[in-house]
Design brief:
Alpha-Beta Plaits, alpha/beta, binds zinc ion, elongated, 2 domains
Length: 344
């Protein structure tokens, strides 16, 4: 990486370094070498995340962004047309989340204040949250901070998010002749699972999905195996508990149930986001408090005790070939970060 002439230049350089989830080593190495060359304190934690630190006054203000992107084939070449950045090669741009990586790193390059700022660069956000799950929290000198990882206008604050459960129900039986064994035990299990899915889909403030259905048998044979898997998302903690009770109620001799809580929902109180709102309003940005069923590193890190707030970064159409971000928004993010640090 060369010393950037602007945040757009830095963004362009970062996007050109391939970092699809699972292939983040090159971008980490480039940022590590660059930080060393610029005299910025930088370490890899035991989980593999990169942490850059400047300033001495504690507690530190945290900035977090993920370096990985969803898959693409060709090298990402950023082009600017009338102030809008897109990928010349007609695939994702990588603004999710390199827009934030660029804005935060560009801010850090020019920063020489006393307030300590720690930039935490995570990996695997698009797949299994490997970075945020394994982040060594003992290396962090503060608990509060900001993330710009939502493809919404700058001014958006993700205030309320849902809990996400992944669920799996597996039914097994002694197979048999489907015309002679009656009632058919697998049909009975199938109906029970269907009733639970129907009940979960009716729970308030929730989204239920059946993503995978598998069975193994020929016609005329009672299936020895059925597997159902999906997700359940809810803004409502009561619904999230009820869904788990419903699923667990299926467990028995023939049926096993596995539920993984991938992320606990959270709600950000007004007092926690007050200074962020002041900063956004000082840039004449309309503050929009948003509900989101999406899952991000912020879920994982908040459930681990960090008070991070996820904000809009101005990008649009992320994860698609139309992904774009305005130069103006990249530049605005840098000045917003400057003010957040100055008023911390
Ligand atoms: Zn993202």
């Amino acid at each position: 990486m060369n010393y950037p002439t602007s945040v757009t230049d830095l963004f362009t350089q970062l996007c050109a370094i391939r970092s699809v989830s699972g292939e983040e080593q090159q971008v980490y190495q480039e940022i590590l070498d660059f930080a060393h060359a610029q005299g910025i304190e930088v370490i890899r934690d035991t989980g593999g995340n990169l942490i850059l630190t400047k300033g001495t006054k504690l507690p530190a203000l945290l900035l977090n962004a993920h370096v990985d992107t969803v898959p693409h084939i060709k090298t990402i070449e950023v082009q600017e047309v009338a102030g809008l950045l897109t990928n010349k090669n007609g695939e994702i741009l990588g603004a999710d989340n390199k827009a934030a990586v660029a804005a935060m790193l560009f801010f850090l390059l020019g920063y020489d204040g006393e307030q300590q700022v720690q930039l935490v660069l995570t990996y695997g956000e698009e797949t299994d949250f490997g970075g945020s799950t394994s982040l060594d929290l003992t290396l962090l000198n503060g608990k509060q901070g900001y993330v710009f990882d939502t493809a919404q206008p700058i001014g958006t604050i993700v205030q309320h998010t849902g809990t996400l459960l992944e669920w799996e129900v597996v039914c097994t039986s002694m197979s048999g002749h489907s015309g002679l064994t009656y009632p058919n035990p697998m049909v009975q299990q199938f109906v029970k699972v269907g009733e639970v899915v129907a009940a979960m889909a009716q729970l308030p403030d929730s989204r239920c999905n059946v993503a995978q259905l598998q069975s193994e048998a020929a016609l005329n044979v009672i299936s020895p195996y059925m597997r159902f898997a999906g997700e359940f998302r809810s803004m409502n903690p009561v619904s999230a508990h009820k869904a788990q009770d419903l699923l667990n109620g299926l467990a028995g001799d023939m049926t096993t149930v596995k539920i993984t809580v991938c992320g606990e929902g959270y709600f950000i109180e007004e007092s926690e986001s007050a200074s962020l709102c002041d900063v956004l309003e000082s840039f004449n940005k309309r503050v929009v408090l948003q509900q989101s069923y999406g899952l991000s590193d912020v879920h994982v890190l908040r459930s681990r005790g960090l008070k991070l707030i996820n904000c809009g970064n101005g990008a649009r159409f992320t994860h698609s070939a139309n992904e774009q971000i305005a130069v103006e928004d990249l530049e605005l993010m840098v000045t917003i970060i400057e003010r957040l640090v100055a008023t911390f």
